[in-house]
Design brief:
With 356 residues, the chain is of the alpha/beta class. The chain is 49% helix and 15% strand. The two termini are 26 Å apart.
């Protein structure tokens, strides 16, 4: 399913030259566009088809003439706005930055979570550690420090994580509960959003979340008082400890946007312990955004860039999966893929697995 554009040149020489400069000025383009949003200029232009003059934009936003001018001139050449005579007008790309929730979530995530740390990407690639994480604190991975990150960073991190997974939960619930599980193990359940969806969707299911103890504390705060929360249980564990077995006796095991947080070696270790904990009739569901199985090429672009968040900030050794890599890990762990369902939510795939 890999997009055909990756097999041949897409640009003319002039377009390639332009792309090279867009890459060279990428940090400037990003910050200019972010501030066009933050200062309300895109919003202002969206409300008037005939646009506004520089003086009008300066007056309505409270920016100095200079500040408005440098942002507008840069945005004009970026392509997010247009100029007709002396009036600036919102272009299609500017409209998407303003109205496309995906673009907004990605921009906030990159600015608040990744931007400073990506300066250390080179070190991270060479050392195999998330060297950019030190801009926020000294933790081996971002997961140990998640509850201690600055408030705005946490907001953007969870906003990014939840936005993508939440769009997929409706269809995912149908898939999982078509097999009528009574006990479900949610590995890496984070704040309990999936578990909450499960107990509210099915009035009998018992869900146990396996995650780091500090994550379970956050989960209990998030789920306290919610309908069905008495059927959500926690099992604290260091998932990377090869000697830590997983709880047994579950009809279904669920992992959502979880395995991409680990190296292939770690993924095989986790899945091997999953295989050891389940019976022959148990189902294993793995929901991931696989970059080679996307309906739209833009999604593949986004996912391969997100991989560098894992490199610089999260753990230094994981990425968004190509489906072949994930399937190889599954098979090496003693499981087999029964079925893959694509195009769930904003681009997730669910791999339904069982014991070999």
């Amino acid at each position: 399913m890999m997009h055909k554009r990756y097999t041949k040149e897409q640009c003319t020489a002039a377009e390639a030259q332009r792309l090279a400069q867009e890459i060279a000025f990428g940090p400037v383009v990003f910050q200019v566009s972010r501030l066009m949003l933050k200062f309300g200029i895109f919003q202002l232009l969206s409300g008037k088809r005939e646009g506004y003059t520089l003086q009008e934009i300066s007056g309505r936003t409270g920016l100095t003439r200079y500040a408005a001018q440098v942002l507008l001139e840069a945005s004009l050449t970026i392509g997010t706005i247009l100029l007709e005579e002396d009036r600036y007008i919102l272009a299609k790309a500017g409209w998407f930055l303003l109205n496309d929730k995906i673009a907004r979530v990605n921009m906030e995530f990159n600015h608040d979570v990744n931007y400073q740390g990506l300066f250390h990407l080179e070190e991270a690639l060479l050392n195999g550690r998330p060297e950019g994480l030190k801009v926020f604190g000294e933790w081996p991975t971002i997961y140990e420090g998640l509850s201690q990150l600055p408030e705005q960073v946490q907001k953007s991190w969870f906003g990014f994580d939840h936005f993508y997974s939440d769009q997929s939960f409706g269809k995912a619930l149908e898939i999982v509960f078509s097999h009528h599980p009574k006990r479900l193990l949610d590995i890496g359940g984070n704040t309990g959003r999936w578990a909450t969806q499960c107990v509210q969707y099915n009035k009998e299911v018992e869900v146990t979340i396996v995650d780091l103890p500090q994550q379970l504390e956050m989960m209990r705060k998030q789920t306290a008082g919610l309908s069905g929360s008495e059927r959500i249980h926690g099992h604290g564990a260091n998932l990377l400890d090869r000697d830590v077995p997983f709880p047994t006796g579950f009809d279904a095991v669920w992992m959502s946007q979880f395995l991409d947080c680990f190296s292939e070696e770690e993924v095989i270790s986790i899945l091997t312990r999953v295989a050891q904990s389940i019976g022959k009739d148990s189902k294993v569901y793995i929901m991931e955004t696989l970059w080679d199985r996307q309906r739209y090429e833009t999604a593949s672009y986004c996912l391969t860039q997100i991989s560098l968040y894992f490199t610089a900030m999260a753990n230094g050794n994981s990425k968004m999966f190509h489906s072949d890599d994930l399937i190889r890990c599954i098979e090496n762990a003693g499981l087999e893929v029964e079925e893959i369902q694509d195009n769930i939510g904003l681009g997730h795939s669910i791999l339904q697995c069982r014991l070999k």
